[in-house]
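Put briefly, the fold is written as integer tokens. The lines below illustrate.
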Amino acid sequence: MRKLLIFAAAFSLLTVAAYAGTVKIGVIDMQKIVFESKEGKKAKAEWEKEYNEKKQEIDKKTKELQKLQEELKKNAAVLSEKAKKQKQEELRKKAMELQFLKQEAMQYLQKRNAELVDAILKKAIKIVQDYGKRNGYTLIIDRTGKVVYSDPSVDLTKKIIQIMDKGASTSKKK
């Protein structure tokens, strides 16, 4: 349904633009721009560095937890009930800390990825818009179907609102 609406809107814009003169349309792949540009590659390397740091921290804590589990298994027969319960409680706390650390790292990395990509997207959109204006494009569309730039002269929004409003006022009269 969404693609049909985008197609209909693009077709309408092209029809209006065709009457106005030459139509110049461009297509971009925003995902490719984000991941293959120098800034995108730099952001990816930065994110991977942060990911590896978080992973090392989690791996260290995981090994500590495994060591505690092994110690408890080995010494379970010789430990008193009180000492066993203390070790089990320590193990439970460490497991909870590890789980919290994993969740925190995942949330941080997701947020960080979004920040890095968003900054690149904003810059890329501005560049595409400026490029479209400077080079006389009527419309520039991302491969996903999202319109990134359109010449304001082909915007039908006001006309559609007028038609809708006119239809609403005529239906009230009936």
In short: The chain has a mean pLDDT of 84. The radius of gyration is 29 Å.
